[in-house]
Model the fold of this input.
Amino acid sequence: MWDLVWPLIGLVAGCVIGGKVGFAVARDSMSPEIKELSRLVSYHRSGQLTILQRELANILIRRDALRFLEIYEKVYEESEALNTEEKSVLEAQFLLLSNKYPQYADFDLLCTDDYILYSDIATQYSSEELEQRYHDILLFQALQVFLGDCHWPKWVIANNKKLEHLKEYVQKVIDSKFQKRLEQAMDAGRQRQESTFETQEFKVVHVPSFFPYENAYGIHLKSTNEYGLYGFSFVYSSVDDDGGSKFFEEYYRSDAGFVKQEILGRVII
Done:
């Protein structure tokens, strides 16, 4: 029995005296049972923080995808720099965050009921507050790894692979929002029963040369000075198919002359 009790006392004492940093020191002399407990604690705590950062990321990327990309790039650069820092510097950074968030639950900025929409609770916080909490969680996770918690999953650290994927995804989010605005312009035309028209928000003109579409329109979004193309055609099926026709439409990012044709990759957000 005491074989388990004394290591556990040492673990608790290490955490009390040294805070979260002392956890790794106490862990080195643990019995296999206590090491397994340590592994489970690290696994569940990292999982808890990952869920919290995911909540914040979803809110932030909806607000401003490009700004979120800048935040992630900043954390990535800071995490990369940790590789060359002295252990004393890492411990000092870790201590600052540990004092700022004494309990793991303190990282939860939203801290609301499970049925409350994030969009509702997030209105109570500025983008700067949400960004700072997201930054702190990712940095805290990186410090756990670099300070030697072998059970803390390394994949939680901001890394180049995630950054490259994020860049692609952010562009899709931007394209998605852009396409929605193009759709709004075309819907306005249908409501007016006009194929070409101009309002304070946008201008829609016929573009007959946009092959292979039977009908194509160029759209100028005035507030952002962006240009897009919309084309649609009826595709007639063969007898072997269903013998009918299918409606085919696409949206593109374009230029003032409606020559550029960059098809939009869409993510509904």
Summary: The first helix runs from residue 2 to 18. The radius of gyration is 27 Å. The chain has two domains: 2-158, 175-263.
